[in-house]
Amino acid sequence: xxxxxxxxxxxxxxxxxxxxxxxxxxxxxxxxxxxxxxxxxxxxxxxxxxxxxxxxxxxxxxxxxxxxxxxxxxxxxxxxxxxxxxxxxxxxxxxxxxxxxxxxxxxxxxxxxxxxxxxxxxxxxxxxxxxxxxxxxxxxxxxxxxxxxxxxxxxxxxxxxxxxxxxxxxxxxxxxxxxxxxxxxxxxxxxxxxxxxxxxxxxxxxxxxxxxxxxxxxxxxxxxxxxxxxxxxxxxxxxxxxxxxxxxxxxxxxxxxxxxxxxxxxxxxxxxxxxxxxxxxxxxxxxxxxxxxxxxxxxxxx
Length: 302
Fold this sequence. Notes:
Blueprint: H1 3-31, H2 36-58, H3 76-100, H4 103-110, H5 113-124, H6 131-148, H7 159-179, H8 188-206, H9 208-213, H10 219-246, H11 248-255, H12 258-269, H13 276-301
Helix pairs in contact: 1-3, 1-10, 1-11, 1-12, 2-8, 2-10, 3-7, 3-8, 4-7, 4-12, 5-7, 6-13, 8-10, 10-11, 11-13
């Protein structure tokens, strides 16, 4: 691996690790009686503030000279605001799932976006999946079953958490595809800012009742800044810097680091127990993420 790819790999891996920290911070906040509204509002408010500063410092012209303008429209800001709502929905659904199921399981449900992406490509972009991809999807589903520990007759599983986690995966899939197709003519930091604004609108609507009753404002100094830093500020910057160096294939593989980081954080800080069967399911999912993206990596190398 050359030095550029190594540097890019470190940046992308660091971005994935940041995402892996989020659910543990959310659970810790819940343990201190903060609410979903406290967590999401503070994260997006701090995130927008941080991206505003970053845009003023590094993206003043608002243009992206390193990427083509393919996929852009006459009004890319509206598109970014519209599809940015998926960011707010992803955080909302994901954080609700954490209320019902362990963090180690919530991240597994979120990563269902891997096979959902294959489905979206097949339905909306007429990209017929190969036999290998179909087998990989089936193995990801098998890994999910192992990860949930439903085979264990003594295991208790709250279906609400599973459903909310799956909805988070659906909305995250929309975010992934939007990020590669909408407003490509704008600077990546500017695009991220507009998408965050769209997500913040959703968060405010969902949390309107709680906001009216009064937020716990201490969340902004306790967990809000951490959630914004590791969830909405650092990852987009690290991915934007690292992905051009690694390529999408290797970048996607390294993004899978989010799973073990999240599980290990939950194990050490929340004392969640993950048995050998669950670890095997998680390992199977990570392996399939790697194998699905290896062809893309080979194409880039060629």
